[in-house]
Task: structure prediction
Amino acid sequence: MVSQPLVEVVDVIKSFKDVKAVNGLSFSVREGQFLALLGPNGAGKTTMVEMIEGIQFPDKGDIIIDGKTWHNHEEEIHRIIGLSLQETRFTDKLNVRETLSLFASFYGLGRDRVEEVINLVNLDEKRKSYVVNLSGGQRQRLALGIALLNNPKILLLDEPTTGLDPTARREVWSILKKLKKEANTSLILTTHYMEEAEQLCDYIIIIDHGKILKEGTLDQLLITERGKKILEFTLKEEGIKPEAFPDNNSFNVQWDMDKQKGNLELIKFESQLPKFLNYLHTCGLTLENMEIRKLSLDDLFIDLTGRHIHENE
Result:
């Protein structure tokens, strides 16, 4: 018997004036599943999550959470969700333990749960530090701790690592991976970091302009591209423009003039590589460096949209 999804989003539409921020999205999240809504800024991710959180309401469509709706079961839903927004402001002159204790009191939770959460988000050494003295990564872990206080069935994180340095980002990832292993919490994560979706989530929905472009597990998303490789290269010549690469049936070079770096897809790179080197020679160009790698979600997004996911930032 298939259990009912914990979260169901059915044909949801949300507009602001003439802009459809969310344009007919449908998806579901099962118990224990980590799902990523992946897309660039302005794709509709935050609007969709805010509707799941009950901050906004759809113009059309339905959102069902644990068999309930916000209109009829607001209090029950509040008890089973935890959320962390893109930016959370705290009282600067409270320390970490005091801040968590304040939010724990809203749920009738005591000191034991506060201590558990401090340990969970790795803020042991900062428990007496004022919020104003925390780094960006420590503040984000505090926000995550507040979201986890009530042992939520559903955790909603909106761009939780935006603006963090790579080390702080990975600290947040480590906490979430531990949560996935030890708890049965479901996660809906919005992100524009491809690696974040790959690292954390079982299921990925790529959205742009409020619509789903493609969805599935990482393997499912890339299965049609399996076998392809990306060759990235630089040249000894300087100031190269895209026109330096004439049309060719075998090679479609994507040249970044600002970075002076090119790439192209190869299927059988062992046999195609010598032909590519000959192609460069024919163009009067000399290879300086090259790297061959597997296709990524970023490559898939470019195939779907014709642009990089961070292009508008």
Observations:
- The chain has two domains: 7-223, 228-294.
- The first strand starts at residue 7 and ends at 16.
- The chain has a mean pLDDT of 90.
- The chain has ten helices and 13 strands.
